Structure formats: C-alpha cells, structure tokens
Amino acid sequence: MPSRRTIAGEQIQIPAVLQMQAVLQWAGRFGTKEVPVRYGIPMLCLLLSGFIHPVTAAAAGSSEAQEFSYAGYSELRIDASIFDLEFVPADAQVITLLESNIPSGFTVSHGRQGGRIVVQLQRQMLSLPGWGSGRARLRIAVPRNGVSITARTSTGSIHVQELSGSFELSTSSGEIQLTDSAGSATLRSSTGNQQARNFNGRLQARSTTGQIVLDGFSGRVQASTTTGGIRGSRVRLREDAEFQTTTGGVEITFLNDIEQLGFRLQTTTGTVQIGDRGFGRGEITAGGSGITVFGTTTTGRQTYR
C-alpha cells in the first residue's frame, strides 16, 4: 500500500513501487550476507504490501468505490479485464453504474480525466481467483444521444443498446452486440462474434475467427474476417460497402434494388453469385455505377441478393 510521509506540514504519498525500489537497494547493501532476522519480518510485510496493492495510473480525483455516478459527462473509457459490459440509455446526462457483479480479488477504479470518465477493473496481484455467483459484469447507463464509448475487455462480452454516438469496442474471445443504435462504430475481436442489429450509421467490423452478422443495418459498412463468415439480412446501403474474408463466406441480402448497385468483386478459388447470376473465380465487375459493393475472398463463396 502506498506510504504517506509528512514534509513541511504536507502529506506526500509514496507509491509502492518506489518503496519496493528502496527496500531492494537497502537489501543489496548486505551483498551475499543474510538479511538480519530483526529486519526480515518488516521487509516481508513491506514487500507484500507493495504486491498486494498494485499501483495504477489513476485519473484525477479517482476512487475505488464499487459504485459511481457522474453528471454532465458523455464520454466514457473503460478497461474491463474479464468483465461483461452492458451500456443502456440514462434518463439524464449522467454516467452511472446501475448493476454489477464484481468477484472478490478485483478492484474498480474510476474518475475524471480531462473531459471524460475513465473506469478500470483490475485483479489484485497475488490474489486468489475471484469467487461469486454468475459472470463478472457491469451494467452502465450513459446519455442516450451524443455519447462516446471506448470499451475493452478480454474474455467478456460487450452489448450496446438504444444509444446514439460513437463506439470503439474491442474484445478477445467475447461477443460484441450493437442493438437499436446509431452513429459510428468500430468493432474488434479475435474469436468472438459480432452483431449489429437495427444499427444506422457507419460500421467498421474486424474479427479473426468470429462471425460478423448484420441484421437490419443501414449506412456504410466495412467488414473483414479471416476464417469467420460475414452474413447480412435487411441491409440498406447508403454508401459504398467492403466485405473481405479468407476462408469464410460472404452472404448479404439487400433492401436496395440490386440492379442499381455496382459490384467490384474478387475471389481466388471461390464462386460468386449476384442475384440470379453466377460467376467463376477471378475479378468480377457487374451492376450499376451508383453505390458500389467491394468484395474479396480467397476460398469463400460470395452471395449477394
């Protein structure tokens, strides 16, 4: 735990890392000699206190309270470790933690940093795995319109619903869902699936082995996977679209008149179908000169209806 010293009547907090460095330098004076017994226990306590309470780069005015509410803010950045995250609209211009399931061994730090709210969830060093019922999760209310969310989690899932704004969401093996929302969204995952349901705006979605699913999408989309597939239904393009996959397939059903769309497609060993027309491998140019669909696959099939 950070230590406090009083200098000229003012308390100064000494980070645990600096305490550790001082102890190690002091111990080094003994060389290969054993540390005197009378110093052993205090040293051990000091070392453990430094490990058990890790130092984090906290925001100004940060707190480790398990609940929080900030009025007048619309920008949120959160690093959520293994936690599931759910973002829902608030009744006012506030960012508030509504519900949580926080296992033992985790700390929640939050505070103001510039014009945004920053939240960090971290496992305490040397702590045992957290115990508790259900998955680790946070449910956070944010302003309905004009919100900006940057969220990252490792194995947790992220769900955004009924919000309008900008979203930058990333996870390793968890899933990402955008539901009944609008704005600009950037999604990143490794093995997790991604879904945009009834989303209006601009979407950039990238996954390695996960699926990317569009359902009731309207706007501009750039989607890419390696082995995962890209699926879309009730898709209305308002700008050009890009679909790219290596071994996965692409299957999109448009609300647009398919005869009015332009297609610039490429496949190595896969096949392509546009409406009722089939094409072989290679580069394919078809359709009109308006909104253009760019599609690239290696072995995957491309189907557009």
TrEMBL record:
InterPro entries listed in its UniProt record: Toastrack_DUF4097 (IPR025164)
Domain DUF4097 span(s) in chain numbering: 76-275
Domain of life: Bacteria
Name recorded for this polypeptide: DUF4097 domain-containing protein
Organism name: Spirochaeta africana (strain ATCC 700263 / DSM 8902 / Z-7692)
